[in-house]
Design the sequence.
């Protein structure tokens, strides 16, 4: 068991006033032992190593609550289109040609980018998710994985559900508990009611959570209204999908009654502002959701609709977008940081993640505050949300193990991963030209 003493400026995310200008965190194994001013570690704590980062801010690792990691393979392949033609003409035909190996390399590339930009946990939904699990195990990061399932083709539907069950049996709690497996019905418009009910029965048997896209676009709203005479949220409630751990990604189009339903069942929302802007999907009512006490996390969505996995950019966009449609007082810096840390932990159902506190998991990142855009240092939360960018991250630790130090990745061979993805993605693209 490794023991570290980390000395830095510390933003523990345990309350808006909690900050240590000269602080220290004691880490033993995968857990935080203590946090406080320098000298606050227990007298008998004997670190194997002291990590001195006096010019860095250390905070909890960021939690990306909705993404499709292996979509890095499609980054920049199709932009500037609206959701349905983008999916039907570009994304789905490309994905149909992706092999399991492609999914591994695409996921590994996503993990390089995530670690570099301070994301320590991702919530993922895609195909061949066992490959993503392997990449996560190699990277040493944390993940909630689900097999994306659609249900109108019965063969695809039962294959998807079989895959998701197998994924759960093989990888749930793998990597010393770093991986969780949820079930991933894609969306209300791609899954018939009976299929959703079947998924929910299987998930309940295994006590597994659900991760689904909900009310993402106006066209989804129209389709569901026409088919069932209800909103997507009302219809999902009728199918019995809610209750238990459910992550509803996007939630752009919600009525007041929909929000009541989400609150009633404790459904958590994954907010993806940049994807929603890029695809012109709309602005999710995040301020209202938070006012009702609904848990909201932040996600990047896949790199085909973003096009990066930088949670610092996403936090800034989340705040600015709410201010644009509401008031400048909406979604303050500290609230956004909570969404990306402790909020994200609640979205995933991790009770010991998202804060720097004794007994919590040692998932920590340090941000290099010597960069010019961090001066003058009036407010650390303000700088982290409105000025910081992914490459400012210097050090990343997950489960008490270093994944990046002084901007060098320690678990992934970044050069090989970039070359593999370059060659594999171009090969698929060439089959369409
Ligand atoms: Ni998505």
Sequence:
């Amino acid at each position: 068991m490794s023991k570290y003493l980390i000395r830095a400026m510390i933003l523990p995310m345990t309350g808006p006033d909690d900050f240590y200008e000269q602080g220290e965190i004691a880490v033993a194994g995968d857990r935080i032992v203590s946090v406080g001013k320098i000298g606050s570690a227990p007298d008998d704590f004997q670190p194997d190593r002291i990590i001195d980062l006096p010019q860095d801010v250390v905070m909890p690792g960021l939690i990306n609550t909705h993404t499709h990691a292996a979509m890095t393979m499609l980054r920049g392949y199709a932009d500037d289109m609206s959701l349905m033609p983008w999916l039907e003409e570009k994304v789905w035909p490309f994905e149909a040609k992706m092999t399991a190996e492609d999914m591994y390399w695409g996921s590994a590339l996503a993990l390089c980018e995530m670690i570099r930009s301070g994301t320590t946990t991702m919530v993922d939904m895609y195909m061949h998710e066992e490959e993503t699990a392997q990449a996560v195990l190699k990277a040493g990061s944390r993940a909630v994985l689900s097999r994306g399932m659609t249900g109108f083709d019965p063969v695809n539907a039962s294959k998807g559900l079989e895959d998701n069950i197998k994924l759960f049996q093989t990888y749930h709690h793998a990597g010393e508990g770093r991986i969780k497996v949820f079930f991933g019905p894609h969306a209300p418009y791609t899954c018939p009611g009976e299929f959703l009910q079947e998924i929910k029965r299987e998930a309940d048997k295994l006590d597994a959570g659900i991760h689904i896209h909900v009310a993402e676009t106006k066209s989804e709203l129209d389709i569901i209204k026409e088919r069932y005479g209800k909103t997507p949220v009302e219809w999902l409630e009728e199918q019995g999908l809610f209750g238990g751990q459910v992550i509803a990604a996007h939630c752009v189009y919600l009525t007041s009654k929909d929000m009541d339903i989400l609150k009633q069942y404790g459904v958590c929302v994954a907010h993806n502002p940049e994807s929603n802007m890029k695809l012109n999907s709309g602005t999710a009512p995040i301020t209202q959701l938070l006012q009702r006490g609904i848990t909201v996390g932040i996600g990047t969505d896949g790199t085909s609709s973003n096009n990066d996995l930088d949670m610092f950019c996403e936090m800034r966009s989340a705040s600015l977008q709410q201010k644009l449609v509401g008031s400048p007082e909406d979604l303050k810096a500290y609230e956004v940081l909570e969404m990306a840390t402790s909020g994200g932990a609640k979205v995933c159902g991790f009770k010991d993640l998202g804060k720097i506190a004794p007994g919590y998991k040692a998932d920590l990142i340090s941000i290099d505050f010597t960069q010019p855009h961090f001066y003058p240092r009036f407010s650390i939360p303000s700088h982290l949300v409105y000025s910081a960018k992914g490459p400012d991250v210097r050090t990343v630790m997950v489960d008490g193990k270093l994944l990046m130090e002084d901007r060098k990745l320690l678990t992934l061979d970044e050069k090989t991963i970039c070359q593999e993805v370059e060659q594999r993605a171009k090969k698929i693209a060439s089959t369409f030209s």
User: Anything to note?
Assistant: Residues 66, 68, 213, 249, 301-302 surround nickel (II) ion (CB under 6 Å).
